[in-house]
Amino acid sequence: MDSLEHLTLDEFGFMKDRTQWSERVATTFAEKDGLILSPAHWEIILFMQSYYDQYNHQPNARLFGQAIKKQLGADKGSSIYLYTLFPDGPLKYANKYAGLPIPPSCI
């Protein structure tokens, strides 16, 4: 597994500099958390990057599922689906693996 030592992280383990992000970084973060990223994970991760690029912030917890439903369909925006992918917190970990700051609601 690759080391993450070269990354600039905040006190919560989130990247401070998104330009350091790569798919390998995301995969390494996930592996350290005990997850293997599937295409379903990547769909949410890439959605989060796109959302952040468009709005310059992450959605709050309530809007997270609604934004996914609007873009990817109701089944993918459901809490059950998202917690299946990211059991320790969909909003928090989708952002972490996307190289985005920790959402304020997750601090």
Order of helices and strands: HHHHH
CATH class: Mainly Alpha
Rg, nearest Å:
13 Å
Low-confidence stretches: none
* Second CATH tier, the architecture: Orthogonal Bundle
Specify the helix fraction band: 40-55%
Number of helical segments?
Answer: 5
Overall number of strands? 0
Q: Write the CATH fold name.
A: Arc Repressor Mutant, subunit A
* CATH-assigned homologous superfamily: DsrC protein, C-terminal domain
Average residue pLDDT: 92
The percent range for strand residues is: under 5%
Main beta sheet = none
| Total count of domains | 1
Distance between the termini: 28 Å
Shape: globular
Helix and strand composition category: mainly alpha
Topology:
Blueprint: H1 23-32, H2 39-55, H3 61-72, H4 79-85, H5 90-97
How would you describe this protein?
The protein is an all-alpha fold and 107 residues long. The chain has one domain: Orthogonal Bundle (Arc Repressor Mutant, subunit A). It is built from five helices and no strands. It is globular and about 40 Å long. The termini are far apart. The mean pLDDT is 92.
